[in-house]
Design a protein that fits this description.
seven-stranded mixed sheet; alpha/beta; single chain; globular; disordered C terminus; 25 helices
Length: 795
């Protein structure tokens, strides 16, 4: 959230004066941190009256990318920029690298200038000569690949030999040289290269269906290790952030050498992270990303990740949620180093709050909630803000001993009520609640707030990387202000984009509403993107983790990930791990008139599409008898060219069996509804029909196939972003999001399927056995259909 005021227009005007386009300028003011940084840079560079666009773009890069551990040297860099001694992005990037390594230590100007190419002029003739030489060295490859040549590699060769060359001139000369060598593009040059389909391997045994095969495509470095963006613990001496105060002062927060050395001695230099859910609801797919970041980073670096419950609100926590969280964390494949609770540190947190008061950084306040809100909106100090320290200490002790009524007093941090960041408006540190705590019992009647407890417990647990979603970015100032005020160790804080998926809601409040009001069948309803709902639907944890890894750990916010992208990863895995079988959802009776009534032929059906004949475990037996069943949708009275199902006088192939030809149709009494169809089969398989249908047969004369219930799930909400509908979001629920088919027929081998088993129903999709199954009555949930729309509109 950004608070808009008259200063916004002034900031836009200032940013336009340095050559930024209007869109960039207005987007910039939506980010308090960048706005403050860029304003400071412009003033430091003494260009408040404006400058040329190239200089302005370089200044913008300084505001967003300059290494915070070397802020003392920023004025030197700005001087080189405004005097055009550093004038290209390549030189600026070299300067950033130089100062990141230098930190706050002194440096020699000649070494800096040499590292950044100051004074080196590269003429167009020099560039042309380099481009010519590179084309001569790579001529054979370029002629072979033509316009599919990786121009980026050619550009890289030039950059290597002439690092300070103007990239625009380099690009222009490379394009001209390509045209000179190859001429106009041909039709073949414009064709997309065809990708060879790789044969998919099957598990060697059916028992290995849970093993997920490795993909054969070579992933990029970021895909191999998305955690390379995070610094090592020993680098935690750098300035973490700058807190800008309304009086013009700036707090540059960072660990001293003594504090960092003490921390590293405790941790042994290992990475320490934490996954900190509140035990007041069920985890959803957004938490899967948080687990991937927190547990994943610790695992990749050989470190430790706490599972820490943020149980600071005694009225919201439930044992049910705690048990669920631990179960889901384990199911997702993560193992906590240690399970802790914020309540484990209640005494330490109280002692630190007392110290905060002693240091003049906190006070006891008597404003009501409405009064606090009003004063914050007006940026006004509380009447009790400047009360004597001893008075606040006495009152806080009375709060602890239960001598003050609930709602009559809070402990507030003494931050900056005139700040541009509303998360510095004297946040509440403690409030009174006369409620027993599920874990701490009735020892306490005052409880710490999230804003107070979160950062202090991070420090107490020696967390190296405090990772959270971008909506907490504005809390970073408060986080470091508090740790600095208490002289505590400061973790490295980094925010990443929240995971938003289409056609669902992930607000805890909204999820709780539709669960408690029976819009869905509990927290594990397969239509929800709760992790328990996805698991019940048949989705595997590995597919979810692959989906999260594919999205990456980025800071680009506001993007909505299409649900088809998740479904793509689900299909990718189930295609390799789910054995094939046949189920008919809406059975239509088919009588094979030229097959003896008592004859049953046993046929082999494939569990895996590429099953080898010498592998018996890759097949299962299906009976073929006089009466079989096909799906009602696979028969129609009128045939057409684009229809591959059965019709009067037409032949189709029954999968793994024989061709059949429709000879007669029997109608019900209404003379419209088809009751059964009569066919003749081709035992010699002489006919070669195009259509192939799945089917289920009677295992013996008069004995119908096993009957199963199948639940078909669709998107829970019709709109991609139901949250945009505000109060009308409930009207967007899809009334057809769950369809129950109670009379489906399945092949007999499915009778022994257990809860959680997954299958591909041929021609239909992927299905899993639901927990509602009972002896003699199997229930299947559709996990996902066979069709994959990702890459054809999904994003």
């Amino acid at each position: 959230m950004v608070l808009k005021d008259d200063n916004s227009d002034k900031s836009v005007e200032l940013f336009l004066s340095i050559g930024l386009d209007e869109k960039t300028a207005r987007n910039t003011i939506n980010n308090n941190k960048v706005t403050a940084n860029l304003t400071a840079v412009i003033h430091e560079a003494a260009v408040t009256d404006g400058c040329d666009r190239n200089t302005g773009n370089l200044l913008y890069s300084v505001a967003t990318k300059y290494p915070t551990n070397a802020l003392v040297h920023r004025p030197t860099l700005l001087k080189y920029i405004v005097t055009s001694k550093i004038k290209t992005p390549a030189q600026l990037e070299a300067a950033f690298a130089f100062f990141a390594n230098t930190g706050s230590e002194d440096f020699k100007l000649n070494e800096f200038e040499e590292a950044c190419g100051v004074g080196i002029e590269v003429s167009p003739e020099d560039i042309e000569k380099a481009v010519k030489g590179i084309f001569e060295d790579n001529k054979t490859t370029i002629l072979e690949q033509r316009y599919r040549t990786n121009v980026g590699e050619l550009f890289g060769h030039v950059r290597k030999s002439l690092p300070w060359a103007d990239p625009k001139i380099v690009k222009k000369l490379i394009d001209e040289k390509m045209y000179e060598l190859l001429g106009e593009k041909t039709a073949a040059d414009n064709e997309k290269p065809t990708k060879k389909k790789e044969k998919k391997e099957k598990p060697t045994k059916v028992e290995e269906k849970k093993a997920v095969m490795e993909t054969t495509a070579e992933p990029s470095e970021e895909e191999l290790n998305p955690y390379t963006i995070f610094p090592q613990p020993e680098q935690n001496f750098m300035v973490h952030t700058e807190v800008f105060f309304s009086d013009g002062s700036i707090l540059r927060c960072g660990n001293t050498k003594e504090v960092l050395d003490k921390h590293l001695k405790v941790t042994g230099g290992k990475v320490y992270t934490r996954f900190p859910p509140e035990p007041n609801g069920y985890l959803h797919i957004g938490h899967a990303k948080a687990m991937f970041v927190d547990f994943g980073l610790a695992k990749e670096r050989g470190g430790c990740c706490y599972l820490r419950y943020d149980d600071t609100n005694p009225e919201a926590e439930k044992e049910e949620y705690i048990n669920h969280i631990e179960e889901i964390v384990s199911w997702m494949g993560w193992e906590p180093f240690k399970i802790t609770y914020a309540s484990d540190y209640f005494q330490e947190l109280y002692d630190l709050a007392v110290e905060l008061i002693r240091r003049g950084r906190a006070y006891v306040d008597h404003q009501t909630g409405d009064e606090i809100k009003e004063y914050r909106e007006k940026k006004m100090n509380s009447p009790w803000r400047d009360r004597p320290i001893e008075e606040s200490l006495k009152l806080f002790d009375e709060m602890r001993r239960g001598m003050i009524e609930e709602g009559k007093a809070t402990l507030r941090m003494k931050q900056d009520m005139q700040s541009d960041n509303f998360n510095m408006y004297d946040l509440i540190a403690y409030r009174i609640k006369f409620a027993p705590h599920p874990k701490a019992g009735d020892k306490w009647c005052i409880y710490p707030s999230y804003d107070y407890a979160h950062c202090t417990v991070d420090s107490l647990e020696n967390i190296t990387h405090s990772l959270c979603t971008l909506e907490f970015e504005t809390r970073r100032a408060s986080y470091y202000w508090l740790l600095h005020s208490l002289s505590l160790y400061m973790p490295y804080v980094w925010e990443y984009s929240r995971l938003n998926v289409t056609n669902t809601v992930m607000s805890k409040r909204k999820l709780n509403y539709i669960v408690t009001n029976k819009y869905v069948d509990g927290w594990d309803d397969p239509r929800l993107l709760t992790l328990s709902g996805l698991r019940r639907r048949g989705v595997t944890s590995t597919a979810i983790n692959a989906f999260v890894r594919g999205i990456g750990i980025t800071r680009s916010d506001g993007s909505m990930i299409h649900v088809s992208r998740l479904e793509h990863h689900i299909r990718e895995e189930l295609n390799k791990t789910a054995p094939r079988t046949m189920v008919v959802l809406n059975p239509l009776k088919v009588v094979i008139t030229n097959l003896e009534s008592d004859k049953v032929i046993e046929l082999d059906a494939k569990r895996w599409p590429d099953a080898q004949n010498d592998d018996p475990s890759a097949f299962y037996k299906v009976p073929f008898s006089r009466v079989v069943y096909i799906d009602q949708s696979d028969f129609r009275m009128k045939d057409s060219k684009d229809y591959y199902g059965l019709a009067p006088g037409k032949s189709i192939l029954l999968r793994y069996a024989f061709p059949i030809k429709c000879t007669n149709v029997v109608f019900a009494d209404d003379n419209e509804t088809v009751r059964e169809i009569h066919v003749e089969y081709d035992p010699e398989k002489k006919s070669k029909p195009k259509g192939v249908l799945h089917w289920v047969a009677e295992s013996s004369p008069g004995k119908e196939p096993i009957k199963v219930e199948v639940r078909l799930f669709e998107k829970l909400f019709n709109s991609e972003n139901p949250a945009e509908l505000n109060n009308d979001w409930l009207t967007d629920i899809n009334p057809n999001s769950k369809v129950v088919i109670s009379g489906a027929y399945a092949v007999s081998t499915l009778k022994d399927a257990a809860v959680g088993d997954r299958f591909q129903f041929e021609r239909l999709g992927y299905y899993a056995v639901d927990k509602d199954s009972e002896p003699g009555k199997l229930v299947f949930n559709r996990t996902v259909t066979l069709r994959d729309s990702y890459g054809k509109g999904g994003k």
